[in-house]
Design a protein that fits this description.
2 domains, 5-stranded antiparallel sheet, 22 helices, elongated, single chain, 609 residues
Amino acid sequence: MNQYINRKYVIVGIFSLVVLIFISRLFYLQVIDQSSKLLASNNVLRHVSKYPARGLVFDRNQKLLVYNEAAYDLMIIPNQLSEFDTLEMCEMLNLTKEQVIQRLSKAKAYSYYKPSIFEKLISARTYAPLQEKLYMYKGFFTQTRTLRRYPQKIAANVLGYVSEVDGKITKEKGYYKLGDYIGAKGVEKSYEKVLRGKKGVEIFMVDVHNRIKGRYKNGKYDTAAIHGGNITLTIDAELQIYAENLMQNKIGSIVAIEPSTGEILALVSSPSYNPELLVGRVRSKNYLELQKDTLKPLFDRPLMARYPPGSTFKTVNALIGLQEEIVHTWTRFPCVHGYVSGRFRMGCHPHKSNLDLIKSIQNSCNSYYAHLFRNLLDHPKYGSFENGFETWRKHVLSFGFGKRLGVDLPNEKQGYIPTINRYNRIYGEGRIKSLNIVSMAIGQGELLMTPVQMANMAATICNKGYYFTPHIIKELPQAFNDLKMPLTVKRYSDIDSVHFNPVIEGMYLAVNGLDGGTARNAAVKGLDICGKTGTAQNPGKDHSIFIAFAPKNTPKIAIAVYVENGGYGATWAAPIASLLIEKHLSDTITRKYLENHVLKGDLIHVIKK
């Protein structure tokens, strides 16, 4: 009898355990786990995103650079379709019959009941006739978007563009869903969080066939889209337009900076393109064409191109020589049409000899800097060549070379300053000699810099040792001001400020010296332009380079101009820079003959021949 009683308790216990499991599972599904509820909600509710207009973009003088124009996505729900005039739709949307059929098939393959995009980013002009007849096209409806428009049609590399997100972005950034757009280049990318605003949503109740039956809870849970924040750039639109005109039919870059703030006044990549080519339905087609262009208009040269700095780098070597007391302002070195050491010869253009440091910059003497550079690397006080090289390299890096400056635009490259390890690999451990790398004395050899780094070099010199990170943003909405804070910090080179005056004087005489100078054609009466020419050796024709700032004592602009295959620095780069400086400081051009010469200059087709 006791045996049956015990068995009864076991059976009751088993049943109780099963009931408890079912109750626990039911509690979990109904109270804790919301997935079933969400699935049910998704079957009766349709969430329709409301896309905000992106923020506007202005130049430093509040001239509008980017605004929005209404655009529309044509949506389709296949199970609600009825017969429609295919030919009329083709004409309204500029599509072929095959394209319409293909898109219908794609929509049906996606879902018979859920909406998908049939045609995206339809302009307001195209939408007007479509809107009048849309009631005749059952199963079609539109959702509002915006297109970016560019009233000035300038600064394509600065402003950038927006593009549709892909699966990778939607996985990495939960805010975006397929069909959304995101800043893909330029300030559109750098300041995406500011410009994009915040999406809203409208929630509708739908039946089993996904047909709208009304607003959910009378719109209680709908949210409005929040307009993107407006931003003001440091760019001067008038200066940018003029700079782009001067660079027509030339390959290269212009970077102009306000030295006292680091604000970029003009940023030109040439050849460029009309930013409206990458807007709307034609974006993909035009992007492929621009990508195939052999002149590379999509390549952002000011931030991405890496060149030898040429003789502009003599200014840095002069400063290092003064800092390390390898030379003084009165130090002279011989130059007999160049520098000679054994069988090695480095040529130089004709000028008086022997020159002191200031005159060496004025006349850009190669021999002077070969002597200075070798004396620095081989000086006994360092104990070894390697220590001398590292001392030189440390000073160079303090100017922001060999790394990214931190410009608030995407894709900035870091340039290159060689290491001793590189030379040990090439020549063998401890076998490198100063003569092997003497070309770096005049900005050649392994040295590589971006145009924005060269403009920053000019700003650092005129500031007598410090710079601000070059940047493109001037004003942000208050909630985003923290994004600008790192751009307002002074960054110092490790050269004492007292050493900059003789270098500045040499740059002043290079432009304004009565006894000659390598950049006399850059002089403008009353503007006190200081500059340094450079000619970078190249497998083809040499590159023309010029860095400058003005006025001498109260600099308001520092600039670097790089013209590929332009020859000597004084041939193209110096005139272009001086015209831009004159435009910025006096808002007028006195040398119309020079302006016409530059505007008509065509180096692209000459090179192609």
